[in-house]
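ARCHIVE CARD
CATEGORY: sequence design from structure
SOURCE FIELD: tokenized fold
FIELD CONTENT:
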């Protein structure tokens, strides 16, 4: 940012100059939410990295999330390592030489989860978290990343090859068909039963107030326990029954013959490798 542009940029935050803790700021003109505060004085890191001729007010902090703002204040934060492709500028000796972004595959990291998700979205084919890096993520985060990656690959999304992707990337025909459809995971034994035709139903826990119903144009995606999508099914009906009516095709040691269960019948429409 040029110095004159930065001065204009600074003006919108003048009313926060006495705030040394983050304040949420909705910029109506740009339709953005920011968290703004000023250091009481130039902090130690900025003293180290400031250039002698720099005239910008380095006390100003404008962050896109409260997490980032508080990380700076408390001198802490998150660390999310992973491997994937990314855009970078090549190193050149001539500082005035024109440089174009190139794509490299390598190890990188981010300090907020949204940025990790962005990397996954941009590069779903090459995104990977190594086994020894799993400790930096929660169980929920890992499950989220795995499900999103498997779905993006399922609809055929490729790694970016340009910083200006074609509009077709955001008008995915496969997602137009399968998007918004619930994804349910089943173990290997159940999936084999479904594929072989041994069983054309799923079994759920009965609850008070349940009512039988028939479906029209209601679909689901069935996946394995690693979120690999295996089939596309159409639901036919859901009904209450006793466990003993289905135990020749479905066994559950926790159920007694007279126990009520909810049985959902389906028809397989497509099978995926």
């Amino acid at each position: 940012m040029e110095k004159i542009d930065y001065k204009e940029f600074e003006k919108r935050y003048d009313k926060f100059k006495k705030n040394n803790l983050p304040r949420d700021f909705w910029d109506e003109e740009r339709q953005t939410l920011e968290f703004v505060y000023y250091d009481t004085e130039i902090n130690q890191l900025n003293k180290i990295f400031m250039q002698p001729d720099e005239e910008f007010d380095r006390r100003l902090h404008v962050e896109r999330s409260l997490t980032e703002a508080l990380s700076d204040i408390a001198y802490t934060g998150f660390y999310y390592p992973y491997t994937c492709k990314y855009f970078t500028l090549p190193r050149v000796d001539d500082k005035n030489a024109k440089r174009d972004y190139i794509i490299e595959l390598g190890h990188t990291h981010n300090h907020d989860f949204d940025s990790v998700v962005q990397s996954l979205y941009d590069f779903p084919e090459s995104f990977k978290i190594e086994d020894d890096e799993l400790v930096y993520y929660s169980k929920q985060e890992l499950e989220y990343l795995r499900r999103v990656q498997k779905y993006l690959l399922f609809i055929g999304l490729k790694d970016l090859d340009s910083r200006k992707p074609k509009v077709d990337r955001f008008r995915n025909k496969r997602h137009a068909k399968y998007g918004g459809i619930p994804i349910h995971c089943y173990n290997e034994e159940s999936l084999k039963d479904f594929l072989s035709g041994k069983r054309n139903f799923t079994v759920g826990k009965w609850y008070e107030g349940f009512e039988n119903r028939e479906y029209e144009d209601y679909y689901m995606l069935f996946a394995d326990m690693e979120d690999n999508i295996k089939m596309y099914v159409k639901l036919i009906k859901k009904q209450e029954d006793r466990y003993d009516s289905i135990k020749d095709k479905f066994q559950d040691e926790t159920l007694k013959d007279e126990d009520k269960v909810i049985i959902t019948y389906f028809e397989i429409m497509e099978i995926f490798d």
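CARD ANNOTATION: The first helix runs from residue 3 to 11. The radius of gyration is 27 Å.
SHELF: design records, drawer C
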